[in-house]
Protein backbone atom coordinates (compact mmCIF):
# COMPACT_ATOMS: atom_id res chain seq x y z
CA UNK A 1 0.00 0.00 0.00
CA UNK A 2 1.47 3.38 -0.91
CA UNK A 3 1.86 6.14 1.66
CA UNK A 4 -1.00 8.21 0.30
CA UNK A 5 -3.48 5.34 0.52
CA UNK A 6 -2.23 4.40 3.96
CA UNK A 7 -2.59 7.97 5.17
CA UNK A 8 -6.16 8.20 3.88
CA UNK A 9 -7.17 4.96 5.55
CA UNK A 10 -5.43 5.86 8.78
CA UNK A 11 -7.17 9.25 8.83
CA UNK A 12 -10.54 7.50 8.42
CA UNK A 13 -9.80 5.43 11.52
CA UNK A 14 -9.10 8.42 13.77
CA UNK A 15 -12.66 8.54 15.18
CA UNK A 16 -12.31 4.88 16.17
CA UNK A 17 -8.89 5.36 17.70
CA UNK A 18 -10.35 8.20 19.74
CA UNK A 19 -13.31 6.12 20.88
CA UNK A 20 -11.19 3.14 21.87
CA UNK A 21 -8.73 5.42 23.67
CA UNK A 22 -11.59 7.14 25.48
CA UNK A 23 -12.82 3.80 26.77
CA UNK A 24 -9.36 2.98 28.11
CA UNK A 25 -8.57 6.38 29.60
CA UNK A 26 -11.90 7.68 30.83
CA UNK A 27 -10.56 11.21 30.40
CA UNK A 28 -11.04 12.89 27.04
CA UNK A 29 -7.81 14.89 26.98
CA UNK A 30 -5.64 11.96 27.99
CA UNK A 31 -7.49 9.79 25.48
CA UNK A 32 -6.76 12.16 22.61
CA UNK A 33 -3.09 12.21 23.62
CA UNK A 34 -3.04 8.44 23.49
CA UNK A 35 -4.94 8.32 20.19
CA UNK A 36 -2.53 10.82 18.63
CA UNK A 37 0.52 8.87 19.72
CA UNK A 38 -1.00 5.67 18.43
CA UNK A 39 -1.80 7.32 15.10
CA UNK A 40 1.79 8.57 14.73
CA UNK A 41 3.18 5.24 15.75
CA UNK A 42 1.01 3.50 13.17
CA UNK A 43 2.22 5.95 10.55
CA UNK A 44 5.87 5.27 11.39
CA UNK A 45 5.28 1.53 11.32
CA UNK A 46 3.35 1.62 8.03
CA UNK A 47 6.00 -0.44 6.24
CA UNK A 48 5.18 -3.38 8.48
CA UNK A 49 1.45 -3.25 7.75
CA UNK A 50 0.36 -5.88 5.27
CA UNK A 51 -2.11 -4.55 2.75
CA UNK A 52 -5.37 -6.45 2.76
CA UNK A 53 -5.26 -7.25 6.46
CA UNK A 54 -7.46 -5.42 8.91
CA UNK A 55 -6.07 -1.94 9.45
CA UNK A 56 -8.49 -1.16 12.26
CA UNK A 57 -7.40 -4.18 14.29
CA UNK A 58 -3.77 -3.35 13.48
CA UNK A 59 -4.01 0.24 14.72
CA UNK A 60 -6.02 -0.83 17.78
CA UNK A 61 -3.25 -3.26 18.66
CA UNK A 62 -0.73 -0.43 18.50
CA UNK A 63 -2.91 1.81 20.64
CA UNK A 64 -3.48 -0.90 23.21
CA UNK A 65 0.21 -1.81 23.42
CA UNK A 66 1.06 1.83 23.89
CA UNK A 67 -1.50 2.14 26.65
CA UNK A 68 -0.33 -0.91 28.57
CA UNK A 69 3.39 -0.43 28.04
CA UNK A 70 3.53 3.09 29.40
CA UNK A 71 1.99 2.59 32.76
CA UNK A 72 3.33 5.78 34.24
CA UNK A 73 1.73 8.01 31.67
CA UNK A 74 -1.08 10.32 32.65
CA UNK A 75 -3.50 8.64 30.29
CA UNK A 76 -4.03 5.70 32.62
CA UNK A 77 -7.68 5.27 33.28
CA UNK A 78 -8.96 7.32 36.18
CA UNK A 79 -12.25 7.66 37.88
CA UNK A 80 -14.75 9.47 35.75
CA UNK A 81 -13.77 13.09 35.51
CA UNK A 82 -16.52 15.32 37.00
CA UNK A 83 -16.16 17.63 34.00
CA UNK A 84 -16.79 14.77 31.62
CA UNK A 85 -19.80 13.77 33.67
CA UNK A 86 -21.17 17.27 33.54
CA UNK A 87 -20.56 17.61 29.82
CA UNK A 88 -22.40 14.33 29.23
CA UNK A 89 -25.36 15.61 31.18
CA UNK A 90 -25.44 19.03 29.55
CA UNK A 91 -24.90 17.87 25.98
CA UNK A 92 -27.65 15.33 26.17
CA UNK A 93 -31.20 16.13 25.13
CA UNK A 94 -32.56 13.41 27.32
CA UNK A 95 -31.44 13.71 30.94
CA UNK A 96 -32.59 10.24 31.94
CA UNK A 97 -30.54 8.61 29.21
CA UNK A 98 -27.54 10.77 30.10
CA UNK A 99 -27.76 9.58 33.69
CA UNK A 100 -28.05 6.03 32.48
CA UNK A 101 -24.94 6.45 30.36
CA UNK A 102 -23.08 7.73 33.39
CA UNK A 103 -24.26 4.77 35.46
CA UNK A 104 -22.98 2.49 32.74
CA UNK A 105 -19.62 4.27 32.66
CA UNK A 106 -19.32 3.87 36.39
CA UNK A 107 -20.27 0.21 36.15
CA UNK A 108 -17.62 -0.28 33.45
CA UNK A 109 -15.08 1.22 35.84
CA UNK A 110 -15.80 -1.58 38.28
CA UNK A 111 -14.93 -4.32 35.78
CA UNK A 112 -11.48 -5.90 35.61
CA UNK A 113 -9.49 -4.27 32.81
CA UNK A 114 -9.42 -7.32 30.55
CA UNK A 115 -13.18 -7.78 30.72
CA UNK A 116 -13.92 -4.11 30.16
CA UNK A 117 -11.72 -3.97 27.11
CA UNK A 118 -13.23 -7.11 25.56
CA UNK A 119 -16.77 -5.87 26.17
CA UNK A 120 -16.02 -2.47 24.65
CA UNK A 121 -14.32 -3.82 21.55
CA UNK A 122 -17.02 -6.39 20.85
CA UNK A 123 -20.11 -4.76 22.32
CA UNK A 124 -19.43 -1.13 21.43
CA UNK A 125 -16.75 -1.03 18.76
CA UNK A 126 -18.36 -3.72 16.67
CA UNK A 127 -15.20 -5.77 16.32
CA UNK A 128 -15.50 -9.50 15.83
CA UNK A 129 -14.35 -11.96 18.49
CA UNK A 130 -11.54 -12.87 16.13
CA UNK A 131 -10.34 -9.28 15.68
CA UNK A 132 -10.61 -8.64 19.40
CA UNK A 133 -8.56 -11.75 20.14
CA UNK A 134 -5.93 -10.49 17.71
CA UNK A 135 -5.86 -7.06 19.35
CA UNK A 136 -5.64 -8.42 22.89
CA UNK A 137 -3.20 -11.16 21.96
CA UNK A 138 -5.24 -14.06 23.25
CA UNK A 139 -7.46 -16.91 22.10
CA UNK A 140 -10.96 -16.33 20.70
CA UNK A 141 -12.40 -18.50 23.47
CA UNK A 142 -10.80 -16.27 26.07
CA UNK A 143 -12.42 -13.20 24.53
CA UNK A 144 -15.81 -14.91 24.38
CA UNK A 145 -15.62 -15.78 28.04
CA UNK A 146 -14.44 -12.29 29.03
CA UNK A 147 -17.29 -10.68 27.11
CA UNK A 148 -19.85 -12.95 28.66
CA UNK A 149 -18.50 -12.44 32.17
CA UNK A 150 -18.40 -8.69 31.58
CA UNK A 151 -22.02 -8.61 30.36
CA UNK A 152 -23.15 -10.55 33.40
CA UNK A 153 -21.18 -8.36 35.79
CA UNK A 154 -22.45 -5.12 34.24
CA UNK A 155 -26.04 -6.30 34.52
CA UNK A 156 -25.50 -7.28 38.14
CA UNK A 157 -23.79 -3.99 39.03
CA UNK A 158 -26.55 -1.92 37.47
CA UNK A 159 -29.24 -4.05 39.08
CA UNK A 160 -27.70 -3.96 42.53
CA UNK A 161 -27.63 -0.20 42.27
CA UNK A 162 -31.30 -0.15 41.41
CA UNK A 163 -32.33 -2.48 44.20
CA UNK A 164 -30.13 -0.59 46.64
CA UNK A 165 -32.27 2.43 46.02
CA UNK A 166 -35.33 1.22 47.81
CA UNK A 167 -35.46 2.03 51.49
CA UNK A 168 -32.32 4.10 51.33
CA UNK A 169 -32.63 7.46 53.06
CA UNK A 170 -29.56 8.92 51.43
CA UNK A 171 -31.04 8.36 47.99
CA UNK A 172 -29.84 11.17 45.80
CA UNK A 173 -32.18 13.08 43.54
CA UNK A 174 -30.28 11.89 40.49
CA UNK A 175 -30.57 8.25 41.53
CA UNK A 176 -34.25 8.61 42.23
CA UNK A 177 -34.77 10.28 38.91
CA UNK A 178 -32.88 7.56 37.16
CA UNK A 179 -34.87 4.87 38.86
CA UNK A 180 -38.18 6.45 37.98
CA UNK A 181 -37.23 7.20 34.39
CA UNK A 182 -35.94 3.72 33.83
CA UNK A 183 -39.11 2.18 35.14
CA UNK A 184 -41.22 4.52 33.05
CA UNK A 185 -39.13 3.70 30.05
CA UNK A 186 -39.51 -0.01 30.52
CA UNK A 187 -43.24 0.28 30.92
CA UNK A 188 -43.63 2.38 27.81
CA UNK A 189 -41.37 0.22 25.70
CA UNK A 190 -43.05 -1.45 22.76
CA UNK A 191 -43.98 -4.91 23.78
CA UNK A 192 -43.98 -7.76 21.29
CA UNK A 193 -47.42 -8.50 19.84
CA UNK A 194 -47.58 -11.91 21.45
CA UNK A 195 -46.81 -10.61 24.95
CA UNK B 1 -62.32 -15.57 33.09
CA UNK B 2 -63.11 -17.88 35.98
CA UNK B 3 -61.18 -17.87 39.22
CA UNK B 4 -59.03 -20.88 38.33
CA UNK B 5 -58.02 -19.50 34.95
CA UNK B 6 -57.06 -16.17 36.42
CA UNK B 7 -54.94 -17.94 39.01
CA UNK B 8 -53.19 -19.93 36.34
CA UNK B 9 -52.34 -16.93 34.27
CA UNK B 10 -51.03 -15.21 37.37
CA UNK B 11 -48.80 -18.08 38.29
CA UNK B 12 -47.30 -18.18 34.81
CA UNK B 13 -46.78 -14.47 34.56
CA UNK B 14 -43.82 -13.72 36.85
CA UNK B 15 -41.44 -15.98 34.92
CA UNK B 16 -42.36 -14.62 31.53
CA UNK B 17 -42.20 -11.08 32.86
CA UNK B 18 -38.82 -11.64 34.43
CA UNK B 19 -37.31 -13.07 31.30
CA UNK B 20 -38.80 -10.36 29.11
CA UNK B 21 -37.60 -7.63 31.40
CA UNK B 22 -34.17 -9.24 31.55
CA UNK B 23 -34.02 -9.19 27.76
CA UNK B 24 -35.12 -5.58 27.68
CA UNK B 25 -32.50 -4.57 30.21
CA UNK B 26 -29.74 -6.41 28.38
CA UNK B 27 -30.67 -4.90 25.06
CA UNK B 28 -30.69 -1.53 26.72
CA UNK B 29 -27.23 -2.04 28.16
CA UNK B 30 -26.02 -3.10 24.72
CA UNK B 31 -27.54 -0.01 23.11
CA UNK B 32 -25.98 2.26 25.71
CA UNK B 33 -22.61 0.63 25.33
CA UNK B 34 -22.68 1.35 21.62
CA UNK B 35 -23.78 4.90 22.36
CA UNK B 36 -20.80 5.52 24.62
CA UNK B 37 -18.57 4.56 21.71
CA UNK B 38 -20.61 6.16 18.91
CA UNK B 39 -20.84 9.44 20.80
CA UNK B 40 -17.06 9.68 20.40
CA UNK B 41 -16.87 8.50 16.78
CA UNK B 42 -19.56 11.05 15.91
CA UNK B 43 -17.58 13.94 17.36
CA UNK B 44 -15.71 16.00 14.81
CA UNK B 45 -12.05 14.99 14.76
CA UNK B 46 -9.90 17.73 16.34
CA UNK B 47 -7.76 19.47 13.66
CA UNK B 48 -4.66 18.54 15.61
CA UNK B 49 -4.91 14.92 14.48
CA UNK B 50 -4.83 15.66 10.79
CA UNK B 51 -2.16 18.32 11.09
CA UNK B 52 0.05 15.92 13.06
CA UNK B 53 -0.43 13.30 10.38
CA UNK B 54 0.39 15.78 7.61
CA UNK B 55 3.50 16.87 9.49
CA UNK B 56 4.64 13.29 9.91
CA UNK B 57 4.03 12.65 6.22
CA UNK B 58 6.01 15.73 5.18
CA UNK B 59 8.96 14.96 7.40
CA UNK B 60 9.08 11.38 6.15
CA UNK B 61 9.18 12.65 2.56
CA UNK B 62 12.12 14.90 3.33
CA UNK B 63 14.23 12.03 4.54
Automatic annotation (TrEMBL), chain B:
Residues 1-30 are annotated as: Disordered. Residues 26-59 form the Anti-sigma factor NepR domain. This is Anti-sigma factor NepR domain-containing protein. Residues 1-11 have a biased composition (Polar residues). It comes from Henriciella pelagia. It comes from the Bacteria.
Amino acid sequence: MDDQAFKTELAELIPHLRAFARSLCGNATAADDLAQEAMLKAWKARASYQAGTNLKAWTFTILRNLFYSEKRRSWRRQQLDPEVAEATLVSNDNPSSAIELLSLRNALDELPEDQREALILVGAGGLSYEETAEICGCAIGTIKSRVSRARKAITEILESKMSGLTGNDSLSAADAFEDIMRQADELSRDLPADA
Amino acid sequence: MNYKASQMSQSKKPDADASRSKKIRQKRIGDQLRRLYDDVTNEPVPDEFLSLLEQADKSSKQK
